[in-house]
Write a structure and sequence with these properties.
By secondary structure, the protein is mainly α. The chain has one domain. The protein has four helices and no strands. The radius of gyration is 13 Å and the shape is elongated.
């Protein structure tokens, strides 16, 4: 399933979770959409933590979609 910050598929993820299905992020950068990558929120977070906007977005995906025992 396609999944990124603007399209999180929350309901679908909850629906498939009881079956042990784990979400794998596809297009985590929203097809390279400049409106996502260049969003001010990610710029501010990147500046705060010394990371790029892309690194901030990918970190969100890691924490949002990897099972806790894989972190």
């Amino acid at each position: 399933m396609e999944c990124y910050l603007y399209w999180q598929q929350t309901e679908l993820r909850q629906r498939i979770a009881p079956y042990g299905t784990v979400t794998e992020s596809w297009y985590p950068l929203g097809h390279g959409a400049s409106d996502l990558i260049g969003e001010d929120t990610f710029t501010k977070l990147g500046e705060k933590y010394g990371k790029t906007n892309v690194q901030v977005i990918l970190r969100w995906h890691i924490h949002a979609y990897l099972p806790a025992d894989m972190l």
